[in-house]
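User: Need the bound-state model for iron/sulfur cluster:
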Amino acid sequence: MPTIKLNGKDLEVDGKDKLLKICLEQGAFVPHYCWHPGLQPAGNCRMCLVKVSNSKKLEVSCMYPVADKMEVSTEGPEIDAGRKAVLEYLLINHPLDCPICDKAGECDLQDYTYKYRQGVSRFDEDKNIRHTKDLGPNIRIWGNRCIVCTRCVRFCEEVAGTGELCVIERGDRSVVDVFPGIPIDNPLSLNVVDICPVGALIDKNFMYAARVWFTKRTESVCASCARGCNIDITVLDNDIKRLQPRPNAEVNQYWMCDEGRLNTHYVGSERRLTRSTGTSLEIAETGRRLKFAGILSTYATIEEMHLFKKLMEALQAGAVGFLTSVRGQAQKFPGGFVIEADKTPNRAYAAQLFGEEAVARGIAPVVGDLQSGAAQGLLLMNGIPDLPLPADLVEAARKAQFLAVCDILQNPLAAVAHVVIPATTWAEKDGTFMNIDGRVQRIHKAVEPPVTSRAESQWLQEVLVALGARPAVVSAEGVFREALPELTYSKIGSLGVKTNGHRR
Ligand code: SF4
Ligand code: SF4
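Assistant: Bound-state model below.
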């Protein structure tokens, strides 16, 4: 283990690491564009200059190997002057697009220009004009803004393994492009927009949608598959404007897939179930007379599953069935990222609570009980967006003497149910999911649900109180402590906690 001195402080470091990584881990400020923790270093933006004792000139730290007894400085007038000069070159052909650029407010070029007071240009010549065009169905490039850091090119090669992007032309005409007729359209494509350090690559779904300083960011977890990628939800005026990955080395590294990122349409959909019928307390009243069956989807949170099970016990219900959504095979990418085949976020906990066999049987036992008359009442808690209800379930449930439906979108059973409770989406409540590896992670309320929606963890508790099966209604966190007593929301933190819930 070599020992180096960083800004006067002695450190023992991993000899395999390059200087920039060490500096950043130690909290030293070193500006950089082309280096990204999830990609191989390239050393082409030249911004991460530092002073090292075994060199007379400033060195590019992202490519510089450490050596024993090396002394490194990341601050000082000489270093500032070097970085300022690099910045001046990068800005030579960069347009003053900030007022119309979607990256404004979260752009490294803006931030470093402000820090190094590089506000006046000495460049009197005409700027080079480069292309502005679509690179794929979701991505558009403003070539004039590109600083040719090659992060996007390396992402497509190293992480997605698809290699659609390349740098064309030479010198100050260099710009990112695709091969004619082959757009960037891989399942991870929109990550290149996140990692572009300037506003060259733009997500067409977010284009001109919001000025980021007016938005609110909420930490959450993607609910579109069992991987549970950590995300931030960007919201303006109670409207989800975009989802972006939040780094978590154990789950999604720095990435998320396009399908999960763009799967928010149902939250503000006109097909939302907003008309409630009857009250949830009718479930308690009817449960005293009729034999109930229950169906739960693996979209429900840990808290909701825990309460649903308690309700089934309190009602002395018969069969419990499960709605799940599995599509194809898991997709593994060269960089290690995985999109799971299970398109729901919480099957692992359902399997832990009810048993994997019960979940795997799906809805068959409930359909059987309804058809035979062994069950006369049904409580259906779905919530999987866009999952058509199976025809045999619809047919059998229509014959039930009492039907209660809690769902997000309108469906044939909600249209005929005795009790309809408009559900909340994952973005409209607090709760937890267990991902495919048994990792318990939190979701946070980012937007208000429609006024008729009720948080499931609340009304389920109210029914249990009415049945005398619990003393009072508590918060989602209180329910979570009952479900997994060894954990609390604060122990889970923002990166989740691995439990013994295991991979199927
Ligand atoms: S488009 Fe963005 S990420 Fe790609 S090379 Fe240009 S500046 Fe870098
Ligand atoms: S891999 Fe799964 S959890 Fe991750 S972003 Fe895609 S759909 Fe969401």
